[in-house]
Amino acid sequence: MLDGLTRLEYRGYDSAGVAIYSDGALKVAKAKGRLQVLSDLLEAGAAIHGTVGIGHTRWATHGAPSDINSHPQVSRSGKIAVVHNGIIENYSALKQFLESQGVPFTSETDTEVVAQLIEYFYDGDLLQAVGRVLHRIEGAYALGILCSDTPDQLIAVRRDSPLILGLGKGENFLASDVTAIIKHTRDVIYMDDGELAVLTRDGVQCYNHFLQPVDKEISHVDWEIDAAEKGGYEHFMFKEIMEQPEAVRRAIFPRIRDGEVVFEDFGLTDDYIREIRKIYIVACGSSYHVGMVGKYNLERILRIPVEVSLASEFRYREPIVDERTLVLVISQSGETLDTMAALREARRLGGKILSIVNVVGSSIARESDEVLYTWAGPEIAVATTKAYSTQLAVVDLLGLYFARRLGTMERAEYDQILQEMLLLPAQMEQVLERREDIQYYASQYFNHDSVFYIGRNLDYALGLEGSLKLKEISYIHSEAYASGELKHGTISLIEDGTLVVALATYGRLFEKAMSNVVEVKSRGADVLALTTESHRAEMAKLANGLVTIPDTNPMLLPSLGVIPMQLYAYYVALQRGCDIDKPRNLAKSVTVE
Question: With contact defined as beta carbons under 8 Å apart, do 349 and 373 qualify?
């Protein structure tokens, strides 16, 4: 269990705990802080003996990180223990009811309400008690439940939060991510919303919310465990940065055949594509920044209006969606709660849902009309790198696929871009080979407390991701601005010594980018610039520091430009002594609203 929790610590790491059935009772151990604190408390597992248990690494929502607020949460008798991802939205009302019935509470968590409520309804049939609780709780949750009266079974419950079941021989597992159990089994069941499961050592039985048995398909995980290991690298983030050429190669090469973009088993017909009148791109975080790049590229080559919407805002803005609206949903995990809710709202309004995700069998993938997988492999670092790059590659392929069917691109340009796409992995490797230059600039500028990223068009979209990477892992205040907006307020923040990262890869607007560099330098800024090889000489005349990427088709420039941005953030965080793979207050998969 401790080993499995180690592989899940990227999802939450402010506290951890386990409940093990041992010597006729549940033994619970919990500790604030990293998992290592718990491991030391348990003497690396030797302190408690047992063969069934549940464990959890926490990302605090209700109640500050503490030993008491850590999971598992236990009912007042100590018979029932619960681990929980998600939020019980009506926990306050339920807690008031239970307290009125004389039930004492020890923690500030919403999860304790679940444990106490199960015991309130428990009359010897744990599954029935859990079923009654599920009709009363609201929100998003993945639950693991253990009762000392029935130590030969675990109960798993899922709603709007990822939960998978692992099938072994003489052992079975539940986990929020395959990485936790891949050492033990490659056969998994992806639970659907509203489902429960009873696990014993001999088998797994799934039920719907009426507690009727349901048959589930067994999926086989085909990636190697090495993909979820550091493999000699100091950090997962650096490993995943270095894996990008191969990840992009996997995303692109099988989909370009005989000079055409090919998507196997793709259900969007040519007739439907010609009927599209608007494209919404809906995503969060870095996936939203992929959408920003996508907007510039798709509108240019398709001549269809494209709107990018933060998933957390989409369903509250009364979006205009109909049957001729394609909603492109982008998510690394396929489990992001806000993105899932936006998907459901778009479907309710009649839109067609096409998702781009990394995790096969994820909730977003299953609920979409069509899905394109990025094939990036497992990504462990909280700050995404290869997921962003592969999402970007798939969006570009999708744009080319649509352009051929709409007739909005000349064949010569189409062929040229495809050829450039096939060169991308090798060009990425060239950028990575020059990483020592970026490390040098990080050593020069790591002590800045505020950094501004500026750019136009695709460079502005790229700057959003570069800025996010820096703030995520180095805790430096960082903002990205469209360069043309400098004189509308931002330039008042530029003073002697301010670091400005100027992005100037987009050739059509290079002269304007140079003018913006002059503007900020005249106010005392230090400028670290990113441009293409063909503009190296001109930018070198102005910038204090310069990084270049190979020339390529403008549409593909962000795929190369993002790598120096990632490396710069990584090396700055390294200089500042930050916990790069597990930045404070952040978790990999945001499964709460």
Answer: no
- DSSP β-ladder status, 73-74 and 53-58: unpaired
Among residues 144, 164, 65, the alpha carbon closest in space to that of 109 is found at: 65
pTM over the 0.85 mark: no
Q: Which two tokens stand for residue 137?
A: 């709780």
For the chain, count helices (H), then strands (E): 19, 26
| DSSP-assigned letters across all residues of 468-515 | HHHHHHH--EEEEEEGGGGGGTGGGG--TT-EEEEEE--GGGHHHHHH
Backbone torsion region of residue 265, taken as left when φ is above 0, otherwise alpha when ψ lies between -120 and 50, otherwise beta = left
Between the alpha carbon of residue 65 and those of residues 30, 36, 339, 445, 585, the distances in Å are 11, 15, 27, 33, 11
Phi, psi dihedral angles at 489 (to 5 degrees): 140, -40
Q: What is the SS3 assignment for 75-93?
A: CCCCCEEEEEEEEECCHHH
Res 591: pLDDT: 55
Note the pLDDT tens digit of each residue in 454-498: 999 999 999 999 999 999 999 999 999 999 888 787 787 888 889
Sequence-separated (6 or more) residues with CB below 8 Å from residue 188: 164, 165, 166, 167, 178, 181, 218, 219, 220, 221, 361
Residues β-bridged to residue 30: 17
Long-range Cβ contacts of 126-135 (<8 Å, 24+ apart): 126/80, 126/150, 126/153, 126/155, 127/155, 127/196, 127/198, 127/207, 127/211, 128/211, 130/155, 130/157, 130/196, 131/196, 131/209, 131/211, 134/159, 134/196, 134/209
Domains of the chain: 2-222 (3.60.20.10), 230-425 (3.40.50.10490), 434-580 (3.40.50.10490)
48: tokens are 């408690």
Report the chain's terminal Cα–Cα distance, integer Å.
Answer: 28
Tell which residue, 382, 333, 446, has the closest CA to residue 235: 382
pLDDT of residue 330 exceeding 90: yes
